[in-house]
Amino acid sequence: MTEQFFLDYLRRYRPFKPYWNYEDGCVLLGCERLYTATGSRIYADFILQYLSERISPDGRISDYPADLHSMDSFNCGKSLFFASDQTGDPRYEKAFHWLAGQIRSHSRTESGMFWHKGIYPQQVWIDSTFMAGPFYAEYAARTGNDVIFDEIFRWICYIRRNLRDSESGLFYHAVDESRTQIWADPVSGRSRTFWLRGEGWFLMALADIGYLLPDTQQQLKAEAARTLQDALEALLPYRTKSGLFCQVIDRQELPGNYTETSGSLMIAYAILRGVSGHLLPQSLTETGLSILHTVREQKLMQTEEGFVLKDICSSAGLGGQTRRDGTAAYYLSEPVVSNDPKGVGILMMTEAAAAEVSKENKQSGGTA
User: 33, 348 in Cβ contact below 8 A?
Assistant: First the structure.
């Protein structure tokens, strides 16, 4: 069922925005992982077609939104490594070197952390860890730049120190080091609500970073594993009776709260990828697979128009011209949509992670 859904989705897919964007990057990552899991050229060809239209011979990204100065812009860049390996075309290597330079020159807070976007000065958002962290880790692994690994280590420690709630163990969406935003606590600078996909971005970042690390980076891998394990230990008790997680994680009974698909899938993915990367114990495998199974059963529907993956938060953020105040009411006011790439791409990634865990388990003589 999911395979047919993915093939139909890719056949109809159009870029989510007119410029290089992170939503398309989720689909590209899903295709890359499914190609690795299945060997089907359909997935590889989708990636290569997408990138070949956007990367010039000199490695320039034709529709790169440089004026946004956004950490979101690095998610699509993860597929440049795949394209380089698949084709040997030097433009892709030039492009990922150029992107790494964009990270190095990105604006930083007073404490040295990356701004989420140019329009959000002095703000560190948890989303950024996934958008850029795994890209930077893979770049460091390929170039042997240990300085980057040190920076990623500091980044994870910063998020743990500044965005983790000491009582619940859940992670907030963002922190404003200037303490000036309407959504920021005047003392801590943190936002005020536990948003599911925000936590999901961070868990996936930890799983992917840990998975990509070379054997020489044991300290960083241990930190990624510790943070991922602690985060899951705090998060899993909030799983609803349905088997999934709510948009506002810790307030299940709040009117209008709902089980959100993309964030639930992110948790399943982080678990399965974490098991494959030896960051998490094998005993968590069934939990990850159970969440994935529940999404298939409850959120993936077959209609007269085709398959529909429903209950995906369209978008959420903080501040800006729309005065997004970070309250639970705000997060529940955002549109709920179907077949958004932030849901479908993560479903692709999770299906591939499940296939990888199953393959490894069979090779070791176990069951999953």
Answer: yes
Let me know the angle formed at the C-alpha of 228 by 224 and 234, rounded to the nearest 5 degrees.
150
Contact (Cβ atoms closer than 8 angstroms) between residue 133 and residue 205: yes
Q: Which residues, 6+ apart, have CB-to-CB distance to 314 below 8 Å?
A: 334, 335, 336, 337, 340
Query: What is the rounded distance in angstroms from the CA atom of residue 44 to the CA atom of residue 61?
Result: 19
Q: What's at 243, amino acid-wise? A: G
Q: Distance between CA atoms of 108 and 80, rounded to whole angstroms?
A: 25
Structure token pair of residue 219:
């300290």
First to last CA, the chain: 20
pLDDT at residue 132, as a whole number: 98
**CB environment 94-125: b (16+ within 10 A), e (fewer):** bbbebbbebbeebeebeeebbbbbeebbbbbb
Residues 6+ apart with CB under 8 A from 255: none
Side-chain half-sphere CA neighbours of 30 within 13 A: 26
CA gap 345, 23 in Å, rounded: 8
| Claim: this prediction has a pTM higher than 0.85 | yes
> Residue written as tokens 């060809």?
45
Q: Which domains does the chain have, with CATH numbers?
A: 2-358 (1.50.10.10)
Q: What single DSSP character describes residue 115?
A: P
Q: How far apart are CA 155 and CA 149, in angstroms?
A: 10
CA–CA separation, 126 and 163 (whole Å): 8
- Per the rule left: phi > 0, alpha: psi between -120 and 50, beta: everything else, 69 is left
Q: Please tell me the distance from the alpha carbon of residue 287 to that of residue 247, in angstroms, as a whole number.
A: 19
Give the DSSP per-residue string, 27-56: HHHHHHHHHHHH--HHHHHHHHHHHHTTB-
CA dihedral in degrees (121, 123, 127, 130; nearest 10)?
Answer: 80
CA 91 to CA 348: how far, in whole Å? 27
pLDDT, averaged per 10 consecutive residues of the chain (368 residues), comes to 94 97 98 97 98 97 97 98 98 98 96 96 98 98 97 98 98 98 97 98 98 97 98 98 98 98 98 98 98 98 93 95 91 98 98 95 68
